[in-house]
Q: What sequence folds into this?
């Protein structure tokens, strides 16, 4: 058979396409969380959630996400979360200027004051409405990390993004899901990555 | 009479009957949706002497406060409730330089009993007043014993909007704020008079509840024990002025409705916070909680944050409320219960606007009732 014949060219094209498809199926997605394998997470009993950094336009986004995260984490019954007022007192007493990204010394100081086994810090990257053409929907994107108090090491990190414009939003409109539902979904995702 | 004439008369009678039946049906439909006050007045036997304090204006705008107070006094007197004369209350306020009329501490309660002979004091707060059509009004009130240790006897609230029940072709739409105000006051005073008569009535015709989205219950609270609770003013992160204080009223009223909870009079709490100079910048710290537990001798402290407390502006729309609350227990100094709830007034509404809650007051009351109900589980 002549290798330059049209039939051979078609066969080659089909093989190449199949190979590309198979390669795509086998690609591994980038993991969105990290667990330190040397840490026994079941030994952590009490944690403090520090104020989150806010990179969104909504001034209350960090407070809202933090509040939802604290109550959701407590509702699992797996961990006790230090009340936010006590954390605020700890921050003031330790003299921490940037509580959303504490240094190792800061972690030690505040953990001793509020008696927490671990500290959670984080950032709200997006919170609010996104638009694409005539379509809009709510989106939230949060990243968290946990410091162990005794070693001051980062033992867990995770991020979650929920909401955004779906195909159904583009076709049917409607403005997406309410902001609270989206926030709750993102927080549940983070808690699943922490506990399970 | 010819058969043709008989037939015409018969058809005319049928037409008249159909028209009358149609009119009756329309009137019935319109009547069904009205929420006008009933006209029967209940008389209270052996009424305590009640001092009606000036209205605490939390609405942030000018409102007919004197008229609201007069209407409340009128309704109470009509129900044979003994009310302290206005000049005595004014004299007391001037004599003691009383500036805060939204509650009372122990000292004021004792003086009210001794000087003007009041058995109980009625505190009323105007939470919202919007005269633009459709008007919206929200009121809350509580009756507190005068004397050595003030105790909340009754607490209720009412949120009303002119388009709560517009009825068929909007025949029952209320556009006059005075009418709406009178209806709201009537509902509130009827609830109070019902309580004084030994009935357990509430101002709201239907008590809807909204379950909180997140609930934490540590099971530290025992169902067969009675707890005294301090409800602190909520940290207000909303755009609505005094929303933190309004949430305090909602939680106090809801906790009062539970058999095993005894909320402390908010005026006492306020005075203690002032005396100890406790300023909660980002919620209650455990050091402040310890000070409050020791000073007020209570079992639980409830604190929280309110993120949204919005009444819609303009022709229509739902209200919006979002809050979180937590309860700290005396012995363990740990959170015994926490809840987060965020709702819109049209949540759960399937067909048209049926069931939409038009005022933030009504929505918050339903949400707080739902949250507090989880304490009993």
A:
């Amino acid at each position: 058979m002549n290798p330059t014949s049209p039939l051979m060219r078609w066969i080659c094209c089909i093989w190449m396409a199949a190979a590309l498809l198979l390669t795509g199926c086998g690609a591994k997605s980038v993991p969105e969380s990290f667990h330190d394998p040397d840490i026994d997470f079941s030994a952590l009993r009490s944690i403090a959630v520090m104020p989150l950094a806010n990179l969104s336009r909504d001034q209350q986004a960090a407070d809202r996400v933090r509040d939802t995260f604290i109550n959701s984490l407590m509702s699992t019954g797996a961990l006790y979360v230090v009340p936010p007022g006590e954390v605020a007192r700890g921050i003031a007493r330790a003299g921490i200027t940037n509580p959303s990204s504490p240094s190792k010394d800061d972690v030690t100081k505040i953990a001793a004051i509020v008696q927490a086994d671990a500290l959670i810090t984080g950032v709200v990257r997006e919170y609010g409405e996104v638009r694409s053409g005539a379509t809009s929907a709510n989106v939230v994107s949060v990243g968290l990390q946990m410091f162990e108090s005794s070693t001051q090491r980062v033992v867990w990190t995770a991020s979650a993004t929920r909401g955004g414009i779906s195909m159904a939003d583009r076709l049917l409109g409607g403005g997406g899901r309410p902001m609270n539902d989206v926030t709750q979904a993102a927080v549940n995702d983070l808690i699943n990555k922490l506990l399970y | 009479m010819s058969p043709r004439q008989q037939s015409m008369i018969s058809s005319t009678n049928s037409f008249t009957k159909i028209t009358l039946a149609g009119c009756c049906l329309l009137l019935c439909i319109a009547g069904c949706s009205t929420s006008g006050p009933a006209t029967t007045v209940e008389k209270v036997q052996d009424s305590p002497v009640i001092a009606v304090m000036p209205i605490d204006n939390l609405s942030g705008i000018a409102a007919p406060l004197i008229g609201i107070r007069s209407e409340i006094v009128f309704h109470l007197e009509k129900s044979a409730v003994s009310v302290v004369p206005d000049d005595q209350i004014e004299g007391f306020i001037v004599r003691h330089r009383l500036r805060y009329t939204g509650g009372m501490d122990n000292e004021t309660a004792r003086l009210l009993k001794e000087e003007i002979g009041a058995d109980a004091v009625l505190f009323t707060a105007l939470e919202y007043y919007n005269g633009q059509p459709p008007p919206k009004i929200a009121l809350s009130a509580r009756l507190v014993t005068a004397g050595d240790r003030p105790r909340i006897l009754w607490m209720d609230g009412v949120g009303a909007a002119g388009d709560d029940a517009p009825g068929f072709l909007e025949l029952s739409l209320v556009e006059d704020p005075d009418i709406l105000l009178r209806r709201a006051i009537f509902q509130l005073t009827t609830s109070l008079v019902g309580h004084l008569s030994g009935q357990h009535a509430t101002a709201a015709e239907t008590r809807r509840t909204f379950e909180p989205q997140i609930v934490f219950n540590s099971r530290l609270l025992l169902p067969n024990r009675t707890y005294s609770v301090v409800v602190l003013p909520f940290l207000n992160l909303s755009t609505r002025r005094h929303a933190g204080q309004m949430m305090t009223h909602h939680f106090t009223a809801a906790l009062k409705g539970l058999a095993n909870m005894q909320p402390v009079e908010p005026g006492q709490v306020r005075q203690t916070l002032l005396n100890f100079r406790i300023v909660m910048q980002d919620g209650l710290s455990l050091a402040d909680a310890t000070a409050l537990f020791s000073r007020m001798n209570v079992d639980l402290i409830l604190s929280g944050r309110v993120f949204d407390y919005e009444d819609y502006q303009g022709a229509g729309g739902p209200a919006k409320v979002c809050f979180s609350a937590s309860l700290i227990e005396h012995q363990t100094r740990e959170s015994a219960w926490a809840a987060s709830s965020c709702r819109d007034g049209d949540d759960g509404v399937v067909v048209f606007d049926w069931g939409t809650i038009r005022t933030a007051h009504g929505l918050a009351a339903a949400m707080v009732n739902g949250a507090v109900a989880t304490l009993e589980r």
